[in-house]
Amino acid sequence: QVRLKESGGGSVQPGGSLRLSCVAAGFSLDYYAIGWFRQAPGKERDEVSCIGRSADSTYYADSVKGRITISRDSAKNTVYLQMHSLKPEDTAVYYCGTKAECTSDFDYNDWGQGTQVTVSS
Prior knowledge:
Blueprint: E1 4-7, E2 10-12, E3 18-24, E4 33-39, E5 46-51, E6 58-60, E7 68-73, E8 78-83, E9 92-99, E10 110-111, E11 115-119
Parallel strand pairs: 2-11
Antiparallel strand pairs: 1-3, 3-8, 4-5, 4-9, 5-6, 7-8, 9-10, 9-11
């Protein structure tokens, strides 16, 4: 059963912006840290960002620092990934997933089916 759903992906030109959303079905995201990772064809998965349970801690990969903001809205049971100044190398399928906490380990408990982000001219 898929309990997480990503949305907001699409095709944009370099320098464009997108806001991705991660919504949980049937459970509260309040109990988990939420991470975003991406995977492009032929490439290894790459964690982009993570936000702690109480949003008191955030993590950004060096490749996206300054261009991405992660946030969460408990009332909407949603985590957002606001992206701007997008680059072609950001092209990938983006996934959100639950974690016990934001750590360096790629220890996701559950994740969704992903949303495609394509950045090209």
